[in-house]
Amino acid sequence: MASIVLIGAAATGIAQASVAMFRARGDDVLVVDADPALGLADGAGRCHILARDFDDPAMPREAIALAADLHGGIDSLIVAAGAMHAATLADWTQTAWDAVHAVNLRLPFFVAQAAAPYLAASANPAIVFVSSTAARRGQPQTAPYQASKAGLSALVRGLAAELGPAGIRVNAVLPGWIETPFSNAFWQTKADPAAARGAVERRIPLRRQGKAGEVAAVIGFLASPAACYVTGTEIVVDGGDSAV
């Protein structure tokens, strides 16, 4: 039975689907979420919840220590927290930039730093970051968000090189347009949300947005022994959108 630390808004979206997937296969999960009132489905694996803000500097070490104490160690670290902000170039502020990077780039690094000693003792140690195809393509009004995700790609490669000798795998999943409250909030920044969404869906080869469970399945693979020789890479889950 694996012990998983999942950091993300687990009441919704990809993080929620990941918690359900891990627990269904019998894994124990510690969920870190800024919202203490989570409605998580039952599962075979145990689930504990730590209510903490993602930008709390003390959170990474506290969460990792609690997971190790509750579950006797850590096998996988999943960081699915994300911060999105959209504004014209002229309207971006340093505060907004810092808030996006604190969650999307600083948090993954320091949680990985705290988890590494525990992961090194596992027979199947894995770190999986949930990034975005925004790391590879441009889009108006979200350049700082894209920059944070591009930085996460470099972080994956650097950590894979450093932690590989300890047997720790480090990978990322790059979702495209996924049906979640996170992406739905983006559509609402558009003058005509339905038209903007329709235009994107028409260009995706599979002609639809993805489902959170479809991303969770890839996360589950990367955290499993089946991915024992996969590290330093990114798997795109976007229905072919970035391939055409």
UniProtKB/TrEMBL annotation:
<keyword id="KW-0560">Oxidoreductase</keyword>
<feature type="signal peptide">
    <location>
        <begin position="1"/>
        <end position="17"/>
    </location>
</feature>
<protein>
    <submittedName>
        <fullName>SDR family oxidoreductase</fullName>
    </submittedName>
</protein>
<dbReference type="GO" id="GO:0016491">
    <property type="term" value="F:oxidoreductase activity"/>
</dbReference>
<dbReference type="InterPro" id="IPR036291">
    <property type="entry name" value="NAD(P)-bd_dom_sf"/>
</dbReference>
<dbReference type="InterPro" id="IPR002347">
    <property type="entry name" value="SDR_fam"/>
</dbReference>
<comment type="similarity">
    <text>Belongs to the short-chain dehydrogenases/reductases (SDR) family.</text>
</comment>
<keyword id="KW-0732">Signal</keyword>
<dbReference type="Pfam" id="PF13561">
    <property type="entry name" value="adh_short_C2"/>
</dbReference>
